[in-house]
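Researcher: I'd like a candidate sequence for this fold, 96 residues long. If you have to choose between options at a position, lean toward the conservative one.
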């Protein structure tokens, strides 16, 4: 009797899972957070991924090299150093 079997139906959870903030990856430096370049948008809205890739590609000419750590082929952004670099860029731009 094929028609007598009850069909399985997924049920919605009673309470939706609250949004979670991604945990910072472990680093060797206390208080430092190294974020993989491709995951930057999960943590910050600016700069967008394309802009960040541009900065990383030209890092030797724009001073962005101080913000990047490489592990193999993976590029990690030092979050604290990034924001210091942004402040330095703002100061240097004001002098011109």
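Model: Candidate sequence:
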């Amino acid at each position: 009797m094929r028609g007598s079997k009850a069909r399985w139906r997924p049920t919605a959870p009673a309470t939706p899972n609250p949004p979670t903030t991604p945990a910072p990856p472990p680093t060797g430096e206390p208080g430092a957070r190294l974020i993989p370049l491709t995951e930057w948008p999960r943590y910050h809205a600016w700069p967008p991924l394309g802009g960040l890739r541009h900065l990383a590609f030209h890092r030797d000419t724009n001073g962005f090299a101080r913000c990047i750590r490489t592990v193999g082929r993976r590029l990690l952004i030092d979050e604290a150093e990034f924001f210091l670099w942004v402040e330095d860029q703002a100061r240097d731009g004001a002098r011109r």
